[in-house]
Give the backbone structure.
Amino acid sequence: MPRQLYHFWTTAAARKIRLALAEKQLPFELVLERPWERRPEFLTLNPAGEVPVLVEADGRVIIGARAIDEYLDEAYPDLPLIGSDPAGRAEVRRLVEWFDAKFQREVGDLLVEEKMTKRLSGLGQPSSQAIRAGLANIKIHLEYLGWLADRRTYLAGDAFSRADIAAAAHLSAVDYLGDVPWDDHPSARSWYARIKSRPAFRALLADHVPGAPPPKHYADLDF
Amino acid sequence: MPRQLYHFWTTAAARKIRLALAEKQLPFELVLERPWERRPEFLTLNPAGEVPVLVEADGRVIIGARAIDEYLDEAYPDLPLIGSDPAGRAEVRRLVEWFDAKFQREVGDLLVEEKMTKRLSGLGQPSSQAIRAGLANIKIHLEYLGWLADRRTYLAGDAFSRADIAAAAHLSAVDYLGDVPWDDHPSARSWYARIKSRPAFRALLADHVPGAPPPKHYADLDF
């Protein structure tokens, strides 16, 4: 059995693990899971009913973006995605939490979940109030991201890390909707252009959700 | 300067770090922060404006429950709160994420935030719909917790770990409101009784939020 990753296209947490696996040059197969279907076999695998779930070639199951993130660096220490000094590692994890918790709550839930997940799942109508809030909130996140990018080579410091992966994964899910105002945020844009042109990003740019194609600039490296 | 932890009483993420520090026998001072006040000095410390924030005696600042959690085991490997084998560590982190993300969203946000934070901050009225949903959701979490406790010595396996700390921290915040239906969940109750009687738990049981005293059983080890 090859290594398998249960994912859903626009779930940022799963995109993050796709990027991490590719950066670490660990081959894997994607298994598409629609979490709202609550498939009994999938709930047996992960009682939380959420993606991502990683199933290793030997059958070992690693559940949840946080556990997989740390597991990959522990089990495959080559090509590390987090530094070795405790303070630097804490800065990477601070930014990962920023995107996984704060950005997800203030932007992802309000745009991706409302516009994409509700449409694909047929569970309810998008709330225009939520979408307006998400579009306002993303500006603040892009400003902070640009502020970091102006001062550091990569988001958490000198080295590419899980912080860049988390930020890019979350932004790419919103970018798939065409809702990232890149023109107003040149520093964030030039950071994203660098991350987007990494080989690990290619598979994400080829994503095509049936019935919800991405905007033209989504896969464009010179957007 | 002694080690300082910025916290708010009923914020489960901060309770978790109080427990972890006490389990690791690392002395610290508590600094009470009301995040909704958005104090400029605190926002300089943590631009996310959230507790917990740990300031080490040497001035090093570690931000966010996730980063602090991992940092404590990396910087102070004695009395480890997570095992050494990658699969076991992944199981600990799966359960930590279960409580920090899923329980917080399905229970904590609906009960603690609505009933306590809104009251103390004066920001809005509690939503009775949210509270009803939180009271329904907690049953499912207590069932799952009891299911684990029936099969394992501690939540993630044979050893006490961050999984027990996370679960107990989140439950203790709800228990402060008197909203945990212990009578209906004997397995969860007997697990919680064991965790609650650990010395590290004592300081939490002495908490007394001004204007919002805990119910009698909150500090009772034989509840």
